[in-house]
C-alpha cells in the first residue's frame, strides 16, 4: 500500500454528493459494496451505491471514481443507470458490516464495529477496507449508550465478518443516517435485508419509526409492524398520523387489527376506528382527524402559536379551522378557514372570526378521490376541511395523501424523471 495514501472512514461518505467531471451533481452516496476475500485479506471495495435525485439506486464502480476528497466523490461521468441489485457474494458496509460483533484475533475478545476505513492501493484503481474502528465491551441497547474502550485495528486483526449474525445492533448505522429525512431513511430501510430492516426498526424510537413507516411501501410496513412486540406496535401506531395508521391496520387480519386497537390509548383508537369506517379513497378515508381547530374568540397570536408546532406537517400548518366547541373532531359547527398568509397580515390581537374564509366549499366525507383532487386543483389548496351534514368538522385532507392514493401503488419504486435504456447496460461490478 502506498505510503501516505489517505484513509477515509466510511461514515464520512454517508450522504456525500457525487459529481461528474463538469461539476454537476449526479446523486448521493448511500452505501459501499465490498467483496470479502479468503483468509484475512482485506475486502475489496467494488463500488458505491449512489442514490439519484429520482431515488433510484445505482451502482458506481470504483474504477469510475476519480477522486474522493473534501466531502465529495468525483466520477468519470459515465454512469450505468440500471437499478442496483446486490449479488450473493457482495456485502454492504453500512447495511451489513457496521454494528457487527466480531472477535479480536490476538485476545479472543468480542468487539463491536463502529466504522471502517478504505484506502486506495498503489499504482492501481483498486480500493480495499484497510482498518476497522471497534469498541470493546457490551453492546448498547435501544435506550442506553454502550461504553467501552475504542480502538482502530487492521482488518486482519479481527475475525467474524463472514458469519451470519443474529441480533445485530443498529446504533452505528442509525448514527450514519441520523440527518436523513423520514422519506430518505425509509428508502434506506427498504433496500436492507428483512433481517437488517427489523434490527434497524427495533433501534428507532417510536416517533422516528412512525414517521418512517408512513413513507414505506405497504409490504414493508406490514413486515416491520409484524416483527415488533404488540405493545410497541400499538405505541408506534399511536405516533403515526391517524389516517396512515388506519390505512396500515386495514391491511392486517381482523384478529391482529382488533388486538392492536385494544392496546392503543382509547382516544387514539377511537380516531383510527372512525377513519376506518369510511371507504379508503374518499375524503373521510383520506383525512386526518388532527387539524388545527380554534374557537371564534381565539386571536391571530393564538393561531400563529399553534401553527409553529414543529410536529405539524407543512400542509396542516397552512391553515387553521374555526369551529364552535367542542374543539376536538368531530367539532361543533364549522365556521370557516383562516389561511396562514392571512394570519401573517393581521395584527396579533385580531380575532380569527374576523378574518375567516367562509366561502370555501368544504368536502363531504363521502366525496370520492376525483372530487377531492378537483378541490385542490380548483382552489390551489394544500389542505381542505371535511365537514359532515350536521356542519361539524370531521378532519382535514392534505394534498400529500391525495397524491399518495392517485399515484401507482409502486410509485416509490418508479422513476418519473429518469429515462432508462436497459439495452447495452453493463451489469454492475463490471
Automatic annotation (TrEMBL):
The keyword Transmembrane helix does not apply. It comes from the Bacteria. Pfam families: CBS, MgtE_N, SH3_actinomycetes. Keywords: CBS domain. Residues 287-353 form the CBS domain. Coiled coil: none annotated. PANTHER family: MAGNESIUM TRANSPORTER MGTE (PTHR43773). This is CBS domain-containing protein.
